[in-house]
Design goal:
- The protein is mainly alpha-helical and about 240 residues long.
- The chain is built from ten helices and two strands, in the order H-H-H-H-H-H-H-E-E-H-H-H.
- A hairpin with a 2-residue loop joins strand 1 and strand 2.
- Helix 8 packs antiparallel against helix 9 and helix 8 runs parallel beside helix 10.
- The radius of gyration is 17 Å and the shape is globular.
- It starts with about 30 loop residues before the first helix and ends with a helix.
Length: about 240
């Protein structure tokens, strides 16, 4: 399997541009462009993982969705909310299967949480967005934690046991990765994998792994630094 691209890191701040704002061309942020490149590089790895338990096209859907998000970028100086709005629209409108609508709903809730008026920090807003996304995905998809879906990574990122997490931080992402890893021991109750019974045991759910990867990328963008230990955990899940 090719060596995957490292998770995207925030671009360093650039000197102020003397050109008029009207002359700036709308473009994706460096973070969104790198996130799209990450999933393009991991297309084969996610497809291989998905072939063991599903249709084998998750990597293609994820890469296509991120590429579509890059094409949708419209803001001259995009914020994280702008980026997540572009990703949400791409997954909701341009990606088929179950992954498109479910990931799209999550990104939509994350983007919405970042634009709610108030004094909450970005990390707290992202945590609120995860909780809203969890509710939306569960409502639309009908799944619950333990069904071997992306919710098995999303729920522990949003809640520490029964308590809502106050921030998207390293503990939340570590919990998401642990939740994704734990799906190795779950028999699926939703989707195509549910027809395979115990044959899925030993392989993590691809959607849960992908979800944990997205949360790691969000954390690194927020903190402005790579998280080597968390990256290593993610790499282990995609082997």
């Amino acid at each position: 399997m090719p060596t995957p691209r490292a998770l995207p890191e925030p671009a360093p701040a650039e000197a102020a541009d003397d050109a008029p704002a009207a002359a700036q061309t709308p473009a994706p942020s460096a973070w969104l462009a790198e996130l799209a490149a990450l999933f393009a590089d991991r297309r084969a790895a996610f497809n291989t993982l998905d072939q063991r338990t599903g249709d084998g096209d998750l990597g293609t859907n994820l890469a296509g969705g991120m590429a579509a998000a890059v094409r949708r970028a419209r803001a001259a100086e995009p914020t994280l909310a702008d980026d997540l709005t572009a990703v949400a629209g791409a997954f909701l409108d341009d990606v088929g299967g179950s992954s498109g609508p479910l990931f799209g709903l999550l990104f939509q809730q994350l983007a919405g949480a970042l634009t709610v008026p108030g004094e909450a920090t970005e990390a707290a807003r992202l945590a609120a967005g995860l909780r809203a996304g969890l509710a939306a995905v569960s409502r639309v998809g009908g799944a619950q934690p333990g069904d071997r879906t992306l919710l098995d990574a999303l729920h522990p990122a949003a809640f520490d046991g029964d308590a809502p997490r106050g921030h998207l931080d390293e503990a939340a992402v570590a919990a998401a990765l642990a939740g994704a890893a734990a799906t190795r021991d779950l028999v699926a109750r939703r989707g195509r994998a549910s027809y395979l019974g115990e044959r899925v045991l030993g392989t993590p759910d691809p959607g849960a792994v992908a979800l944990a990867g997205v949360l790691l990328a969000l954390l690194e963008r927020h903190d402005g630094e790579p998280k080597p230990a968390l990256r290593a955990d993610l790499e282990e899940l995609t082997r």
